[in-house]
Amino acid sequence: MHTSESVTSLDTSVQEFLKLVDENESFLVVSHTYPDGDAVGSTLAMGLLLEKLGKKVTFYNQHPLPFNFGFLPAADRWVNELTEAQKDIDVTVILDCAQLHRIGDDLETRGVLGKKIAVVDHHKTWDSDFAEVYVRDVSAAATGEVIYRILVASTAELDLEIAKCLYCCVLTDTGSFRYSSTSPTTFQIAGELLKVGINPWDMTSQIYESQPVEKMKLLGKSLSTLNVSDSGNLASIRLERQMFRDVLGPDFESMDFTSFTDGFINHARSIAGVEIAAQLFEEAATDEQSTPSWKISFRSRGSVNAAELAGQFGGGGNHNAAGCTILGSADSVHAQLAEALDRLVDAQGK
Predict the structure, then answer these.
(1) DSSP annotation string for 304-324
(2) Which residues contact 134 (CB under 8 A, 6 or more apart)?
(3) Which of 180, 208, 236 is the C-terminal boundary of a domain?
(4) For residue range 89-141, what is the model confidence (pLDDT) as tens digits?
């Protein structure tokens, strides 16, 4: 639940954001790379809201839209490249992360971040010195909840298109309302979205139960790498680039191949006794790099803070979901994570 102090602070930042919107005309909306459901839904919902407020909007991400979110309103406007006209941006709105490096390097290196930057997010990990306005609520279960607050405070009305995008946010970032981050506020917002005409089964079916056979083949390969630590606290699975090559073909790099892995980590977390699951995703090697680099996602059952574990390796996130990057063999990475997690569990027990 929100404290009165946090609500007051959030209300103030919401008004600062709406003032920034009122004073500018062209906006670029972007989330972190390898976007998940909250990132996708936030990007689309914010873009549609800004258009309702009379603004010119570009929906951008360095990576493609995952295939299972293609049914959402404005999904067909998601772009990975900017035209010269689109590079003339007044404000960049960064969604579902509050760290500039997490949106990728394309925008910054090309100098098209916009004259001003705003952040709308719910994660605890953040950088406090690069944006003009921060709208953050770490008690929110999803960034979609924060956008809902902005919409209510604006002159725009909630319609079915925006409602679908916001429902995608809360549905996916709460694990279908199962995670401990799910709050009474989450259900209240979901209820308001349903009033507009959301069909819960249709949303769930589109996102989770319309999977290509290739995804199931990748899941099988990934689960064959399952590694549970001696203590039982950590379960890890890995996704090697050769797996994608075997299932999707040699040109998998040109595909939205990361969207084929959504939800895999939950199988590892479902093992009895596991506190945190880790998914190791092998990144593309560079010419200078001889040691494998793994992009790691964490999912916690709730009793152990995933962000604390990620933070020990230079990463971050929130209590239930976090991530980092580690160099080394898959076995050595698993061992490092297991040792660090065991220390956290032991410290928590004291």
Answers:
(1) S-HHHHHHTTT-EE-SSEEEE
(2) 13, 98, 118, 119, 121, 126, 128
(3) 208
(4) 999 999 999 999 899 888 877 778 889 999 999 998 899 999 999 999 999 99
The range of the structural domain enclosing residue 334 comes to: 213-349
Give one DSSP letter per residue of 263-319, joined into a string: THHHHHHTSTT-SEEEEEEEPPP-TT--S-EEEEEEEE-SSS-HHHHHHTTT-EE-S
Instruction: Look at the block and give the residue holding tokens 């084929």.
Output: 260
* Cβ atoms of residues 133 and 13 within 8 Å: yes
Q: Do 253 and 276 belong together in one domain? A: yes
Q: What is the C-alpha R_g of the chain?
A: 20
- The closest of 287, 288, 281, 284 to 323, measured between CA atoms, is 281
Distance CA 49, CA 51 (A): 5
pLDDT in tens, 311-338: 999 998 888 889 999 999 999 999 999 9
